Amino acid sequence: MTSVRRFLVAVAILPLLLTASACGGDPPAAEKDQMVTIVGQNFTEADIVTQLYKLLLDKQGFDTDVEKLGARDSYLGALEKGRVQVAGDQLSSLTETLNRTANGNDATPVASSDVQATLGHLKTLGATYGLTPLRPAQAEDAIAYAVTKEYAAQHDLTTLSDLGKLDQPIALAANSDCAERPDCGKGLQNVYGITLGKIEPLGFGTQDTKNALVNGEVQLGQVSTTDGSLDRAGLVVLQDDKDWQNAENLVPVVNSAWLKKNPKAADALDQLSGVLTTADLTSLNAQVDGQRLEASQVAEDYLKEKGLI
């Protein structure tokens, strides 16, 4: 991937032609401002979001490219320096990453289930590093807890509070560090009164965790709110009815210096945030993972359906 275009300069033999030539090695400043590299990551949802951003910016006349830099720790430096200009991330996770960067690994957490309050913290922290968060979408890729549809129907469960009221030991499949985490084992017990009989360290949202649920080895599994495979596996997420988990809304994050020169980029990406829901993003993930469609195609179809391109 080449982030800066190289132009061939015709070299004239006669000095008069050399003097008259106005060609240069770099594109004009105005053209440079229209060039934008969007950060990509290596999983389905990130591919879809990247394509959604790309198509919206293409419509606005930007010359877009995608560079897959991997996880947050890999792309933040490039975004801060302006080598890439646009990324999509989760609201609270990004906020706490910048919080720890600014204030040390033991920094008091500032993210919460309150979207606007967390966004305010992200704006303040982002300003230190030349990053501007745009409008968060309603779509939220957060930690969630699922049961089988059969188990939910048998016990009349729709929320985590309902599960706590069963007052019986529950086997959980989750990350290996779940027992001590406030967003996992500790929270399930302290916030919802769920008694955990055992925790199987099968991972967050892994196939092993989902298989353990389907096979009846556990009753509860740690998954993502936007996992597109849950429905066809016969699984359902129990609602976090006490707003226990931090807000993890999808939020576009843009290099501030570039955005200052390109305010129309914010308008384009904000349009998407105004319509994209958790159910929408889950459906898009399911189309790629379940139906084996291309991320670029499902992104285009979605934007056309919403009248955005």
Model description:
The protein folds into 2 domains: 15-140 and 248-305, D-Maltodextrin-Binding Protein, domain 2 (3-Layer(aba) Sandwich), CATH 3.40.190.10; 143-238, D-Maltodextrin-Binding Protein, domain 2 (3-Layer(aba) Sandwich), CATH 3.40.190.120. 42% of the residues lie in helices and 17% in strands. The protein has helices at residues 15-20, 29-33, 44-59, 72-81, 91-103, 115-128, 149-155, 160-165, 185-190, 207-214, 256-261, 263-273, 278-289, 295-305; strands at 35-40, 63-68, 86-90, 131-133, 143-148, 170-174, 196-201, 220-224, 235-238, 250-255. The strands form 3 sheets. Strands 7-6-8-5-9 form a 5-stranded mixed beta sheet. Helix 5 crosses helix 6. The longest helix is centred in the N-terminal third of the chain and has 16 residues, at 44-59. Residues 1-24 have low confidence and may be disordered.
Present the secondary structure layout:
Elements (H helix, E strand, L loop, with lengths): L14 H6 L8 H5 L1 E6 L3 H16 L3 E6 L3 H10 L4 E5 H13 L11 H14 L2 E3 L9 E6 H7 L4 H6 L4 E5 L10 H6 L5 E6 L5 H8 L5 E5 L10 E4 L11 E6 H6 L1 H11 L4 H12 L5 H11 L4
Parallel strand pairs: 1-2, 6-7, 6-8
Antiparallel strand pairs: 3-10, 4-10, 5-8, 5-9
Helix pairs in contact: 3-12, 3-14, 5-6, 13-14
